[in-house]
Each structure stands twice: as structure tokens, then as C-alpha cells.
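#structure-requests
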Amino acid sequence: MRARTIAACAASLCLLLGAAAATAQSPGRKELPPALDLREKVERVAVTVTDMYGRRETREIPVVIYRPEGERPGPLAVFLHGRANRERRAEQGRARPERLARWLAQSGFVVAVPTRVGYADTYGDFDPEYSGGCRERRIRPMNQAIVDQTLAVVAHMRAQPYVDAGRWIVIGQSVGGQGAVAVVGAAPEGLVAGINFAGGSGGHPQEHPRRPCGAQLLKHEFSALGAKARVPMLWLYWENDLFWGSEHPREWFSAWREAGGAGTFHLLSPVGEDGHQGINLDMDRWVPLAQQFLSQVGFAVAGPPERPAASGFARVDDVSRVPLLDERAREEGYLRFLKAQPPRAFAIGARGGWGWGQGDWAIGKALGNCARYGQRCTLYAVDDVVVWK
């Protein structure tokens, strides 16, 4: 019964996790259960923030925590989510970047993901990250609100016995990426490095694609932050980003570097329909860059999962030879995998669970979709060959 339940869960999961790992729960989408292999849990942390009008409030925000295997204290990685429009901010659930968190946890990091004030269950009449209209933006109060919340979360995490309090990194996407730059500019104690995925604000891909509001104001803000930064950053953008385009990110990074900020900038070739989501769509390419960057600051970080050689155990289309799965799992899981176009991968668990993935990071998706229910998983097939021994 246990194996049948796990397999049924994996069937509804395999494509869901492949779609968007580093964004908040989409409106109307059933929330996934906690990832058991990552010991996922939620804690609430009190934060005090001030908006651009001077209003100061203390609220409790949810922080999703992911942990690596073992009890040895690990360095901390704080992930900062982006900013959706008003309707989505009201309806979204907690930010749960599971695929990113699994990669970091495999490298020994404890991952903390705050869903900040003004999003999800704290959405309401107080939005400390509001920065004004397109022509009159005030970026600094927004950044300060993100910094204040991040540091409150770090202080909370430092008190946990499973966290190495002396070393932490900050990672952010979109507005969260801009926030990661602001955190680095604040030069807090223990911070070792930062990663900015497609960071910025003021973009509107429908009304004015590639032409964000206040681009020059943001350039000046990045310059001011670079002058105060004390640790290096990795900036990752994509050419077909519909929020910022390709030229603004180059100018922003140049302003950061010229003011004294250290770091590396990569503008990756187009991915998907909107490169703004490259953190979700392009792990095969950005993980090696992040691995190299983090190794330079002293972390032993995992690279992309390796593809095993063909084992000759069976033909990939011989459904009857797939071990450990019951008939329903073979029909609902493995047959769906066979209909998918490569790149693709299928993993099986020791207790009958399974998971599969397609496209970018297919092997990682398959293993993660299988392992999240708390069992050891092994690759069975990759693309058109069986690799299971």
C-alpha cells in the first residue's frame, strides 16, 4: 500500500516540479507535501520593516527551511523570491524553490527561504517593497526592507544547532536578485558571497518589454551598493529577458564594478519564451557557473548530475522489465516517460516510488521527484537507454 501511494503521488508530481522550482506556489495549484528527503519545514520569524512612507510594522513571516543529510552543521544559503503583480502576491503560497534547494542541500547547505512581508499570508494594506509609480520610483526603501528581513532570518537561523553560523550566502531572483545585491552592499557579518539571478525591478513584459521603469535610478543604486560591498557576487542574466532586456543588466553590473563591487557577470543565450525565468529553465547551464564561483570562495559544491553509461539490463521500451514498480506505476509513470521527448530521465525508489523529468535538468528532476517522499532513488533510464544495474 505504501509503494502504491508513493507511486501515485509521483505521477502527479513529475511535471509539476519540472515547471517552476524557484517561484512561489502558483495561484490555484495544489500545494505539494513537504519534501521528506530535504527535511522541509516551516518556521515563523518576526521581522520589523519600514515602507517608503515611513510606516513601520512588525510582522511574522513564514520561512521554509531545507536541510542536507546528517547532523553536521552546514553553511547557510538564504534565497530571496521575486515580486509578482498584486493579484498573484495576494494568492501565492510560500516560496518553495525545491529544485534549487535540493542542489544546495546536496552541497551541504542549509537553505532558508523567507516569504517576505506583503506576499502570501501577509498580503494586505502594508507593502514595504512598493517603490512608487514608474516615473517617481524610490528604490532604496524597497531594498532596505529586503535587507532588514533577510538579516532577521539570518539571526534566527544562526541560533539553530544545525547551522554553521560563521558562513552564509545570499541568492535571489528578479526583485529578490536586486535584494541580494542590496544585502551584499550592506556588508553583514558572516556573509561570504551572493548570487543574483536576473535581478532588477520596474519591469513589465506586457506593457513595456525590455524597458524597465527607473533603469537609470537602479543603475545609480547598484553603484552605491557596489561601493560598500565587501564580498564577491555572481550575476546571471539571459539575453531574452522580457523584463530588462540585455543592455540594462550590462550597465547595472558595470556600475557595480566601477564603484568597487567585485564579481562576475554572465549574459547567457536565450532560453524559453522569457529568459527572466532562466533560474528555472536553464540549470544545465547555470549550475556549472555557480559551482565554479562558489568553489572560488571556499565551498565544495556539486555540479550537474552525471549521466551513467548504458547497462544493457533491458530495452528502454520493455515496460515489463522495470523493477520495483507495480502495474499501476508502470502504466501511469513509465509509459508517460516513454512518450516524452528527450532529454528525459526516469528514477525508481527502493520502496516502489518513482519520478521522472524532461528537458533541462532532466536527471536531477527525476531523482528529486522520486526522493522527495523519503526514499533512496536510482536512475533507471536516461533518454533512450536503460542505465539501471
